[in-house]
Amino acid sequence: MNPQDWRQRIVCNPDVHHGEPCVRGTRIAVSVIVASLANLSIDELLKQYPQLSREDVQASLYFASEAAHTTMVA
Description:
Blueprint: E1 10-11, E2 22-23, H1 30-36, H2 42-48, H3 54-70
Helix pairs in contact: 1-3
């Protein structure tokens, strides 16, 4: 997956999950995916969320990476 392709998979919609970035077509927030990967492998995560694809997980990680680069921490 190209790092820029996350834009086609991650959406922010104020009517879905309070506008948090989610995988398109789901209510699964990027933050849930990234936090889950602290304890689970990608394969385990995909078993828990069968509606996700490996590309959705990769897109979430690319999104989180880009967000971390643009977020200032005090």
